[in-house]
Amino acid sequence: MKLLTAFISGTLFGLGLILAGMTDPLKVLAFLDVTGRWDPSLALVMIGAIGSAAVGFAYAGKRRRTLLGDELQLPTRREINAPLIVGSTLFGIGWGLAGYCPGPGVVGLWAGSLPAAVFVIALFFGIEAHAWYDQERGQSDADEAVADT
User: Do 14 and 110 contact (CB within 8 A), yes or no?
Assistant: First the structure.
């Protein structure tokens, strides 16, 4: 049931991206071009996404379990720190250069887009680099803790 729910949710999300035109990197880049041929339609998509997510989070915040019975895991950290700022900056730079973010990139990959495939490959390299960095940082933190004792 969980796999079916994930498949249906992902399919609906992908169809929504296609209908909104968010799988077209030129449309995304036009939104970011505020001094040229600016296309504000992405802002409307973002407003709709933020609104629906706010309703979902408000509902989820009152529950202890998901609708499928698993323990509900919501983020608890609220501080703005260096990793958040660096990650957000890298995300924005990549989005501005490629015109893709992960959702539209995966949809484009399924549609057979070569630029989307290149983006998704780069995305996985970035994910692995972050995992490696976290592992190395965790190891160095452990080494410092041992040295302090």
Answer: yes
